Amino acid sequence: MKKFRLKIVFNSPVVLSFVFISFAVMMIGFITLGRSNELLFMTYHSSLKNPLTYIRFFTHVLGHAGWDHYIGNMAYILLLGPILEEKYGSKKILEVIIITAAITGVINYLLFWDVALCGASGVVFAFILLTSFTSFKDGELPITFILVAVIFIGQQVYEGLFLQDNVSNLSHILGGIIGAVIGYNLNKK
Predict the structure, then answer these.
(1) Can you give the pTM of this predicted structure?
(2) pLDDT of 143-181, one tens digit each?
(3) 53: in domain
(4) Terminal CA-CA length for the chain
């Protein structure tokens, strides 16, 4: 009789590393009473002479404002990320995260001088739109992509125009656009 063996595997190295690093950043944020987020994991309008300004363009996706913010983002990343990493590879998913961080960080810096940005929401929206391209074939536009784009991006446009909250709808929209563009380019072959 064959013995049943269950083996835990590190199935998605980039996604799991991102989640664990973000968790560590969250814990450090609590220990430092948020000072570490301000210093390294939040992008805002600061002097271009400060080298940390450039680092924060990338690291802001690791910081989160609280547990609800962290859990909400990581739930989506853990749900979608492994599927994407299996399909496109770890290197490509890391590129998506880095590109999304850089674009959302720089745009926030340029357009919103009085807004600090932290969190992986842009990455989440990139993953959402990228996922809708997983069954894409050249010359076809999946209805799932159209619906996801209308629902998620439409919601962000509406909330950006009509709600006053601390959510960066622009980073969500930019993340979605990045995911859609990368998804299209990866799957048009």
Answers:
(1) 0.87
(2) 877 887 788 777 777 776 665 655 567 787 888 889 888
(3) yes
(4) 47
> What domain count does the chain have?
1
Integer-rounded Cα radius of gyration of the chain: 18
22 within 8 A of 120, measured Cβ to Cβ: yes
Which tops the pLDDT comparison, 171 or 54? 54
Residue type, 122: G
The residue type of 175 is G
| 166 occurs within a structural domain | yes
Q: What is the pLDDT of residues 6-46, one digit of tens each?
A: 888 889 999 999 999 999 999 999 999 999 999 999 999 89
Domain range for 51: 13-187
Q: What are phi and psi of 59, to 5 degrees?
A: -85, -10
The CATH number that applies at residue 103 is: 1.20.1540.10
Please check whether residue 6 lies inside any domain of the structure. Answer: no
In a domain, 35, yes or no: yes
What ranges make up the beta strands (E) of the chain? none
Q: State how far the Cα of 16 lies from the Cα of 33, in Å rounded to an integer.
A: 25
Single out the residue of 64, 102, 73, 99 nearest to residue 15, CA to CA: 73
Q: What is the DSSP letter of 48?
A: T
